[in-house]
């Protein structure tokens, strides 16, 4: 694996390797000294053309816990805001000696362009590109599901037979797309629930998922192991996709009443940031079934695993290094 650009191109073995190495990294994060020397002397650049808090900080923490130097590059206030191209930015980073690049970009496909170019010779990690994909979010979601469902026996296991219901703004969600491809690879069954206006045209024929427009009916029929609520991405909407916030919350939000109809062991997930009272109630977000904070914690372990596998050149040594 040279780059991580998409979950669609990950094989089952590659996905399981990342999840298993993340188990080793989670052990490191539980230690008093949360450091490995693996990437000492290497430089990771966080190249963010879109605003981000949790993803950028998570990648920064992951790189530093592997002893890498980190450069945070924000498009705002940089030469990009003055018109500098992606090519010129990449070549500048290459000249500075970047050993790995984590990129978030508003244009779908920008990480692929960077990976396939000769502008920079370094592993590229897609931290979210437009409405296309967000692979490390899907990986941390799968890691969280696996740990909650299987506990200590999770290492080496896929998600075969697990029922996952993903609810909300499917149209604009790169998280939904990355989760779909990864969960399919790992053997889970995915059901998307959304207003018809927030489902991509042709999704029923093109995607390996069940499409539903009725949240309550889906809960009754699917009896899901996992319910994942998605943020309404108003910043990507230039039209009215539903009547109003109250209507959306009533039909497609995980409120207290719907929470009560879920199985007691059903996992409630949200990639964040949450719009409490819109897509998820405070009670659901803060319930014992919620994994919202676990997802944040697990995000560091997954991103450590990804950087380790792409940049260390010794993936087989992860368990030994974590134990030392």
UniProtKB/TrEMBL annotation:
Q: What is its EC number?
A: 2.1.3.2
* Record's catalysed reaction(s): carbamoyl phosphate + L-aspartate = N-carbamoyl-L-aspartate + phosphate + H(+)
Residues reported to bind L-aspartate: 82, 174, 231
PROSITE patterns (alphabetical): CARBAMOYLTRANSFERASE
Which Gene Ontology molecular function entries are recorded, alphabetically?
amino acid binding; aspartate carbamoyltransferase activity
Q: What region holds the Aspartate/ornithine carbamoyltransferase Asp/Orn-binding domain?
A: 160-310
- Any one Pfam family here would be OTCace_N
Its job:
Catalyzes the condensation of carbamoyl phosphate and aspartate to form carbamoyl aspartate and inorganic phosphate, the committed step in the de novo pyrimidine nucleotide biosynthesis pathway.
Spell out the subunit comment.
Heterododecamer (2C3:3R2) of six catalytic PyrB chains organized as two trimers (C3), and six regulatory PyrI chains organized as three dimers (R2).
Report what the protein is called: Aspartate carbamoyltransferase
Gene that specifies this protein: pyrB
């Amino acid at each position: 694996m040279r780059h991580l650009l998409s979950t669609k191109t990950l094989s089952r073995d590659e996905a399981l390797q990342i999840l298993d190495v993340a188990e080793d990294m989670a052990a490191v994060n539980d230690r008093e000294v949360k450091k490995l020397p693996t990437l000492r002397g290497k430089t990771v650049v966080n190249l963010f053309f879109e605003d981000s808090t949790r993803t950028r900080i998570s990648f920064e923490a992951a790189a530093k816990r592997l002893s890498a130097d980190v450069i945070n590059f924000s498009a705002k206030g940089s030469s990009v805001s003055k018109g500098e191209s992606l090519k010129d930015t990449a070549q500048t980073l290459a000249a500075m000696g970047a050993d790995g690049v984590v990129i978030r970009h508003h244009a779908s496909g920008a990480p692929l362009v960077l990976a396939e170019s000769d502008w920079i010779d370094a592993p590229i990690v897609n931290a979210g590109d437009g409405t296309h994909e967000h692979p490390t979010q899907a990986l941390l979601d799968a890691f969280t599901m696996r740990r909650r469902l299987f506990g200590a026996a999770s290492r080496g296991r896929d998600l075969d037979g697990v029922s996952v219901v993903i609810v909300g703004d499917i149209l604009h969600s790169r998280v939904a797309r990355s989760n779909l491809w990864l969960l399919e690879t790992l053997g889970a069954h995915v059901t998307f629930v959304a207003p018809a206006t927030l489902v991509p045209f042709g999704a029923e024929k093109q995607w390996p998922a069940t499409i539903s427009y009725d949240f309550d009916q889906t809960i009754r029929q699917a009896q899901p192991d996992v319910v994942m609520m998605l943020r309404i991405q108003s910043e990507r909407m230039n039209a009215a996709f539903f009547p109003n916030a109250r209507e959306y919350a009533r039909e497609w939000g995980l409120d207290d009443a719907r929470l009560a109809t879920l199985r007691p062991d059903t996992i409630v997930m949200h990639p964040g940031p949450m719009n409490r009272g819109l897509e998820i109630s405070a009670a659901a977000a803060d319930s014992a079934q919620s994994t919202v904070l676990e997802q944040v914690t697990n995000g560091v372990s997954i991103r450590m695993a990804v950087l380790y596998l792409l940049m260390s050149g010794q993936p087989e040594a992860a368990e030994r290094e974590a134990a030392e």
